[in-house]
Amino acid sequence: MSQRFSVAGKRVLITGASSGFGAHFAIALAEEGADVVLAARRVEKLEATAEAVLALGREATVVPMDVSDHASVEAAFAQMPAVDVVVNNAGVSHEGPTDELSEEDWDRVVDTNLKGVWAVSKFAIQQWRRDGRPGSLINIASILGLRVGGRVAPYTASKAAVVQLTKSLALDFARYNIRCNAICPGYVETDINRDFFNSPLAEKMLKRIPYRRLGQIDELVGIANGVCQRSMPVTGIRRLQEFCRGDVWACGQPSAFPHPLKFAILSTSEFLK
User: Fold this and answer.
1) Residues 214, 146: Cα–Cα separation, whole Å
2) What digits encode the pLDDT tens for the residues 35-46?
3) pLDDT tens per residue, range 87-130
4) Engineering a disulfide at 53: which of 30, 144, 172, 188 sits with its beta carbon 3.0 to 4.6 angstroms away?
5) How far apart are CA 170 and CA 179, in angstroms?
6) Of the residues 155, 176, 187, 211, which is catalytic?
7) Cα 89 from Cα 74, distance rounded (Å)
């Protein structure tokens, strides 16, 4: 792999690393030469991912972190080694009519998906600025942060807010050589949505996808790896771009994009002029 896409020798913090996107990102980045810090509420669930990383000859540090708890995030940063890249991946969802949601349901989703991204980003930025080092934040948002989805109001609201938070962080900290991007995956099956994609409603939705299938986590790897690179410019993408199997496609209407995977990299040139 060319140096442009090398993460060799970097240390990457991944939240929500016990399963789904997080575990997959950790292993994929380790395969490319990165050391990883794995964070989740229950560290015992991180053991399998850590073992897989160690088997690749890379370092794996495990830290307990509840991203919805500001004090827990602060404590985790106090005990972990310095990192070069942060992947804000931890997320939850709740499906149901908005008028039937409890306050606890709403707070659980928003506190994890939005407050958690803010808290982790905050302490990472403080570390980079204190040490005078560059850094890269990668926020895992969702296609539902860009377009509406039914019966998942707290999820769509939180992911839309992550998109705007990403732009704000990028604008505020570009001068310190700290980059912030968001990846908005499309319909990819994970633990968080597996039950939904087995429902009759999901069957109807899949019929509208030309490939008639969900995306696979493997198809995210090239994108996440590329965004980790310092060589991917903070000012290089003027508009929303969609990604398919690691290729860059010109921005267009989602309906014109003939692939089940829709990824959006939100970069920051338009906010830095």
Assistant:
1) 18
2) 999 999 999 999
3) 999 999 998 999 999 999 999 999 999 999 999 999 999 999 99
4) 30
5) 6
6) 155
7) 17
Beta strands 178-183 and 135-140 are parallel
Report how far residue 43's alpha carbon sits from residue 39's, in angstroms, rounded to the nearest whole number. 7
pLDDT at residue 200 above 50? yes
Do residues 175 and 143 lie in contact, with contact meaning Cβ atoms separated by under 8 Å?
no
CA 250 to mean position of chain CA atoms: 22
Amino acid found at 44: E
Identify the CATH homologous superfamily for domain 3-272: NAD(P)-binding Rossmann-like Domain (3.40.50.720)
3-state secondary structure the chain: CCHHHCCCCCEEEEECCCCHHHHHHHHHHHHCCCEEEEEECCHHHHHHHHHHHHHCCCCEEEEECCCCCHHHHHHHHHHCCCCCEEEECCCCCCCCCHHHCCHHHHHHHHHHHHHHHHHHHHHHHHHHHHHCCCEEEEEECCHHHCCCCCCCHHHHHHHHHHHHHHHHHHHHHHHHCEEEEEECCCCECCCCCCCHHHCHHHHHHHCCCCCCCCECHHHHHHHHHHHHCCCCCCCCCCCCEEEECCEEECCCCHHHCCCCCCEEECCCHHHHC
d(CA 185, CA 178): 23
187 in catalytic set: no
pTM of the complete model? 0.82
Query: What is the rounded CA–CA span in Å between residue 107 and residue 157?
Result: 12
Q: Pick the closest to residue 56 from 84, 36, 83 (CA basis).
A: 36
> Where in the chain are the domains?
3-272
Overall residue count recorded for the chain in this entry: 273
Give the chain's radius of gyration (CA, Å). Answer: 18
